[in-house]
Amino acid sequence: MTDYGHDLRFGSFLTPQNQDPQRVVDLAVHSEQVGLDLVTFQDHPYQAAFLDTWTLISWVAARTERVHLSGAVINLPLRQPAVLARSVAGLDMLSGGRIDLGLGAGGFWDAIEAMGGRKLTPGESVQALSEAIDVIRGIWAVDERGALRVDGTYYKVKGAKRGPAPAHDVPIWLGAYKPRMLRLIGEKADGWMPSLSYLSSPTLSEGNAIIDEAAARHDRDPREIRRLLNIQGAFGTSGDFLKGPAEQWVEQLLPFVLEDGIGTFILASDDPVTLQTFAEEVAPALREQAAAERESAGTPTGGVRPAAALAKRRGGIDYDGLPEDLAERAVEPGDRDYHKVRSTYVWSGRPGLVLRPTTPQQVSEALGYARDQDVPLAVRSGGHGISSAATNDGGIVLDLGALNGVELIDRERRLVRVGPGARWGEVAAALAPHGLAISSGDYAGVGVGGLATTGGQGFLGRSYGLTIDHLKGADVVLADGSLVRADAEQHPDLFWALRGAGANMGIVTSFDIEATELGDVVFAQILHNATDTAGFLQMWGKVMEDSPRELTAFLIVVHQGGRRIAQTYAVWAGDDTDRAVRSLEPFLPVAPVLQQSAQLVPYAAVMAPTHDQHDGQSLMHSRSALVDHIDAGTAALVTGLFDRRDTSYFQIRAVGGAINDVPADATAYAHRTQNFSLSVLVRQGHEEQATQEWEKVPATGLYLSFTTHDQAAELTKAFPPATLERLRQVKSVYDPQNVFRNNFPISPTTA
User: Fold this and answer.
1) How far apart are CA 309 and CA 332, in angstroms?
2) b/e per residue, 571-610, with b = 16+ CB within 10 A?
3) What is the C-alpha separation between 99 and 91, in angstroms, rounded?
4) CA–CA gap between residue 696 and residue 395 (Å, rounded)
């Protein structure tokens, strides 16, 4: 007799009659409305009087918002497992993670054969079900490398692409009664889903024992396996089993929880009053009594991490010591959400633990925990992370994605409070109705935190300045876990350092940024043939320097389809559209034009929100340089990189203008004379040669976010000597133990 400590859940088991199809849908909606957790439907595809169960589940998913849905059980012999896996995953994504999977090996074999299925013996059907589970789980295992291959007797998969992953960790429950099926549950399944009326031998307790023994044999904790039970009954005055009033039901069901480990009760009924009584009277009372008995007995409750997940833990991390309020959202390598949080937009990571705090206090707690572990620490905001500092291998990632608020706190002062986990497309969309904007890079999916502490070279840069130039204050978690406010009056030295080297000083949990008044902008795109790369770059640079400061243009040069092409993206941030046209026209004769367009659009359309999943696979090598001009030597050097195939991607960002109005010592970003920010992606195998060539660029600085390697050697290019010395002094005050050392390595001064 075992209580597995599962939280109690309650569901309905509805008959999918097609005579009145809307009735079963209404009963499912009713089940949700009265508070049940789960709605299930039997699946007999050969039964002409029934609706198709999968179609019904899909329809009900669209009609409901909270309740989970499952077949009880899906008839595997008539549902091809690889396709079923994708169907479940797709509907789970569309429904917000509400699809569970009850599976059956098949039983009515003549009817199955009549529908075109293969007739199997009981032993064969168990083996087929085992292979199907491997196929389904393999399709969902998007974190596994390589295509899926299953060489089964009944199901073969020969190189299927994995994915998509469901929105939640879809459990696989098996409807089973005989020892072979029960042993399969212990080996592979997430739950046992019998009907009480069908149980004879093995009994419920005997079945649990068989499952538990098989689980232990496969190094699984039996508590990983939920026990579900389909029941029948009616509310009345009889003393018979499940025939009396609600309080009698509670008394009769309680032993199933405490002695047989049942965690989910599913009532087979098509009567709305019966379902309502079950949900509103039986469920809460049974939960209350079970909780009291468990507390008295000291029964452990809650979820159990599977043994397979525990095996993927990395060394140097005290997983069991993780604070409870962080553990709920934490992600380990063995968790199903790991593939969503392990990497940045560019870089593939393999962290040992990803912490996802939701408040500044939790950020402090997470930082304190991370400091006690013997592994690297990375802090991530939106996850773009070109510099590679926002993920790691075997360490802890502190993911600020949940701190993503955007709030206009003072319209008169144009003051906006933005969380580090917001993405710039979301910021632009939130400010657009107020006629405001903040300059913010060139891609809407970039996170606020990294850009707003490094600089912020954006499409409004020449007219508005860097993002950091309009930072008015920040809330910061320091290395020792304390929470402080940094602005011109409070911790002004920290406030200075945050604007250009912020990742080295603390974790910003909110930014107060002054926005600019901005109506529609002219957004232009020009595609040039850049075969004469050196000549094109020189001319483009001269045109850009001669342009009014209302115009900010970025240029990307790529080698594509056997030719070299250049894409200009330009934003005119001014009211005079005629001047905008006149300012853009000089770009056209720079080289043969392949395509051009210009539109008057809101800035929010230029920075349209994107929610791309960050699953970077690159091990790219990126170099950065800030230069005053695109001179002949620089243009020739870049051309050589393309000619030798050292690169296939080069970018120029126009800076200058308002950016250079700011004194060099006003912020830790001290580069206030240059007109251009350059970056190049170096192809693998060409790093040494390309780096040697890049050193010849007449650079007077570099941009931290676009430099991926040799950051220690590049430190004096990132910060002039006086700036670097001041940063080290600030570092010695706010991070003397150099906790935040996995960025550009600014070490604290020593006494």
Assistant:
1) 8
2) bbbbeeeeebeebbeebeebbeeeeeebeeebbbebbeee
3) 7
4) 36
Tokens describing residue 626: 């800030």
Question: 3-class SS at 73?
Answer: coil
Report residue 554 as tokens. Answer: 């970025």
DSSP 488-512: SSSSHHHHHHHHHHGGGT-EEEEEE
Beta pairing, strands 647-654 & 676-682: antiparallel
Beta strands in 293-440 (DSSP E): 353-355, 377-380, 396-399, 406-410, 415-418, 436-437
Q: Does an H or E element contain 13, and which?
A: strand 9-14
* Beta bridge partners of residue 563, listed in sequence order: 560
Degrees (nearest 5) of the Cα angle 616, 621, 626? 115
Is 76 in contact with 86 (CB distance < 8 Å)? no
Q: Where are the alpha helices (DSSP H) in 585-737?
A: 603-606, 632-643, 687-694, 715-718, 721-734
Burial class (CB in 10 A: 0-12, 13-18, 19+), 305: middle
Separation of alpha carbons 584 and 227, rounded Å: 68
- On whether the CB atoms of residues 95 and 166 are closer than 8 A, the answer is no
The answer for 714, left when phi > 0, alpha when psi is -120 to 50, beta otherwise, is alpha
Q: Half-sphere exposure of residue 565, counting CA atoms within 13 Å on the CB side?
A: 12
How far is the C-alpha of 185 from the C-alpha of 176, rounded, in Å? 8
Rounded (10°) CA dihedral 186, 191, 197, 198:
-40
Contact 126, 105 (CB under 8 A): yes
- Joined tokens for residue 24: 């079963």
Quote the crossing angle between the two packed helices 687-694 and 632-643, to the nearest 10°. Answer: 170
Close Cβ partners of 590 (under 8 Å, ≥ 6 residues apart): 528, 536, 539, 540, 543
Contacts of 334 (CB under 8 A, 6+ apart): 305, 306, 308, 309, 310, 311, 312, 313
Any idea which residue has 């699984």 for tokens?
220
pLDDT in tens, 89-144: 999 999 999 999 999 999 899 999 999 999 999 999 999 999 999 999 999 998 88
Cα Rg of the chain (Å, integer) = 31
Do β-strands 593-601 and 521-529 pair in parallel, antiparallel, or remain unpaired?
antiparallel
Rounded to two decimals, what is the model's pTM?
0.83
Contact status, residue 633 vs residue 696, Cβ threshold 8 Å = yes
- The span from the CA of 1 to the CA of 260, in Å, is 6
φ, ψ dihedrals at 155, nearest 5°: -135, 125
Conformation bin of residue 334: beta by default, left when phi > 0, alpha when psi is -120 to 50: alpha
pLDDT tens digits, one per residue of 292-335: 999 999 998 887 888 888 899 999 999 999 998 999 899 999 88
Q: How far apart are CA 102 and CA 133, in angstroms?
A: 11
Q: Six-digit token pair at 380?
A: 């991530």
Cα separation of 439 and 299, whole Å?
A: 56
pLDDT tens, residue by residue, 595-652: 999 999 999 999 988 766 776 666 678 899 999 999 999 999 999 999 999 999 999 9
Which helix (H) or strand (E) segment holds residue 57: the answer is helix 53-63
Q: What CA–CA distance (Å, rounded) separates 22 from 251?
A: 35
Closest by Cα among 456, 455, 492 to 474: 492
The one-letter amino acid code at 151 reads D
